[in-house]
Amino acid sequence: MYRLSLLVIILSIPFSIAAQDLAVVKGRVIDAKTGKQLPAANISIGYGVKGTSTDTTGYYKLTNLKPGSYQIISSYLGYKKSVKEITLRPGEKLTLNINLWPFVYELEEIVTTGEVQRSQRYIGQAKVETVFLEKIPSIFENDLFRSLQLLPGITSSSELSSGLYIRGGSPDQTLILFNQATIYNPSHFFGFYSTFNPKVVGDVELFKGTYPAKFGGRLGSILSISNKSSNVNRFKGNLSLSMLATSTTLEGPIDGKNGSWLFSLRRSTLDPVLNVLKQSYDDIPQSFYFLDINSKVNLNINPQDRLSFSLYSGKDKLNFPFADQTGIKLNYGNQLVSTTWEHTFSDELKSSVNISGSRYFNFPSFKVATTPYARSNEIRNFSLKASSEYHPNSRNKILSGVLFENKNLKLIDEYDNKSNFVSNHQSLYSAFYIQDEWIITDRFTFSPGIRINHYSSGNYFRIEPRVSLEYRPIKEVQLQAAYGRYNQYLTLISHEAFSGLDVWLSADEGVPPASSNQYSLGIKTDPWEGYRFDTELYYRSMENLFEPDPFIPDQSGIPYKDIFRFGKGYAYGVEFLFERNIGRLNGFVNYTYSVTRRKFPNINEPLDQPGKAEFYPTRFDRPHSINLALQYQINSWWSTAVVFNYMSGKAYTRPMARTFTFKSPISGRGSHQIVTGKINNSRMPAYHRIDISFTRRGSFFGLGNAEWQFKIINLYSHRNTWFYNFDLNKQPSKQRTEVRLLPILPNISYSLNF
Predict the structure, then answer these.
(1) pLDDT band at residue 498 using 50, 70 and 90 as cut-offs
(2) E strand segments, 489-584
(3) Is there a domain that residue 252 lies in?
(4) pLDDT by residue (tens digit) across 643-689?
(5) Same domain assignment for residues 47 and 175
(6) How far is CA 558 from CA 410, 411, 424, 494, 552, in A?
(7) CATH of the domain at 324
(8) What average pLDDT does the structure give for the chain?
(9) Is 417 within a domain?
């Protein structure tokens, strides 16, 4: 504890003495038309090295400026660049709010001229703009997770799953936050889409690895999503229609510019299609729909205080009876509420307090002949977070905070109206973190941090050091390195192609948490005006991975700690990204090479015994991945976008032969056994697909702006392999049936802004 206390004190020490004559520029970047605050906008001093980006509230701060004249340059995707001339006096603290005007779709205004300022890009971090979500073609409905799957280092299971497999991690190794509240199953339509309506998505912050001390609780990555800032100038609305769902979004000001509100409703529109199909086919769901409700209120109490309230509720319901007295009913979803208070004490210190609660529920039921099966699965999560941002001098920014989180995981399985598995875990997760962003020179930045956490189930106490470094030899190049230690106290049981039965289980006494060490190196470059080329290398180890033991046929009556098996793993890879963001043609191409391996013991075999358990590729191991996404502005009314995906085939375990044992003298029966090769030692064919869309902008009888979108999914109708079915009554190595994914699909959507 002495060393720990000493480290915390060292992190809090101002590492450089601020000169008395240095000046500060701070303020917010705002949409000049709607008044909403713009997160992740780029701010730079002239065209030099020094720069920053705005936070989720549009706030920025530039420090350590010598007296004199400067150009403050600000940019944001989809907005015109702003250049402001300022003169700073010794010790001045200037408040400079910047209004950015969105592009009007006229060709002469889209073409960017002049040198573009160099943006700040952190290692392992990716920003996704709303305009990107809305223009990229996707199956039936634009979706956040589908867009994220185009980024380097992120793969998908299939086009029927929105799960995120990031840098060798399974979906449960990514912490997903919506307005700072935890979401446990962010999917609709059996995992086909995520729960996040793109019309209300604002800031999207993704850390693919080596994430900072502010976050914790997962081995791999962090995805933090917040509602967009609503309109503070006038009432505004949107109505969107597609082949899958209909949504409406309304927003407007509260008491002038003292606040704003937003409300959105989205519902699937498959009911008429199902009613028609049921007249001709028997195996059609009797009913199915999904529903989303989003709302948010922002209140500007005074210049120092800001309150926000948000609510989300979403669910899926399915009733699918079969003719042979079997059937399935599904009812699952997420609910959350979140309240945040932000207070500015001074130019040097501001704080934030968040109280949130979330609930994941899942109540499936089945009926096989006359035997019923039912499950009750709930997670209730309540959290209190407090954080602060302190600038002791012009070169140090100290971030600190605490978290208290109560988790209640309840699972009851019933078979033939009798409980055969019951689990009820209530745990308190608490954490403290501190991190110093130390600008040693204008070219070199050092960010040490530490996170200390405790998990009450099993009384686990963990210390997680984090550190990152950045050096800019020239203004066009960022050299970066980072390391982090991470722990995870939950594990997910999920079917790869169907998320409606997801179950989370917790660490406990005798079931220690999983842990990971992550390392990453990066080179970020801006070789020419409007272009970027980034390279990142990563390695992560994974220890004490825990999951239910598949060799236990019946878990009823077995102590909780004895139902698990424990394994280890590793992942490494390299990512390349080339992006163009200038002129009529915008987009990117990326390539990822990655390797993901895990190892679990076989029956009665210790994990650490040489020659026994072996590392094997996971089912989401895709060594090669290529993504291309381009958008082209044809004229003032028409634009087009194209997306190409290529991935190595999924790994699978191939049956090699079938054997038959003779009748047992005890039971009098024989049995068939399948002989397999090594785990996941075979691969399906490579996955590839092209999607294209055309967008037509116009007016709806002068009442508002309208947009038609025409999409063709899987342009050349390549039927990718989903999985194989093997006939186990015959020679399985020869009797194999290929189950394929979607053919070419057209789609039309219409959106009206009023």
Answers:
(1) low
(2) 490-495, 498-506, 514-525, 531-548, 564-581
(3) yes
(4) 999 999 988 888 777 676 655 555 555 566 677 778 888 888 999 99
(5) no
(6) 17, 15, 15, 21, 10
(7) 2.40.170.20
(8) 82
(9) yes
